[in-house]
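Model it.
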Amino acid sequence: MLHIRIREYEHKTVNKTLKEEIHRLHADLCQALSDPKRILILYELRNAERSVSDLSEKLGIRQSNLSQHLSLLRERSMVSARRRGANIYYSLTHPKIIEALDLLREVLSDKLHQISRLAGKISDGQAPKAKASRNGHG
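Modeled.
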């Protein structure tokens, strides 16, 4: 597994091609999180591995659709699979995946709280003044 220290990355000891590859891999991980069903799947795997049928029943996702999502998550190394008899069981590859999702939820919560405060001010007649654009018009 590729492990590059942030300090090495920031101090340009990593060549440009490797940096571009790191950014591409990072974007691939983020893209895997772009579907709400995949986020639900990851949270469902938070504490224990689950079979496809268990995930399908618990999340209300058809097995064919669930398999597509699990396949993408496997390609991105976010989940792993093991076969036991006729069943396939999935688990998280790393608990930090959930930590990352939780951090994103905190950012979302902060944003929603900010919007809620703004909406409260508007409903109280305290609408914020419009900011002037950079070109001075508007």
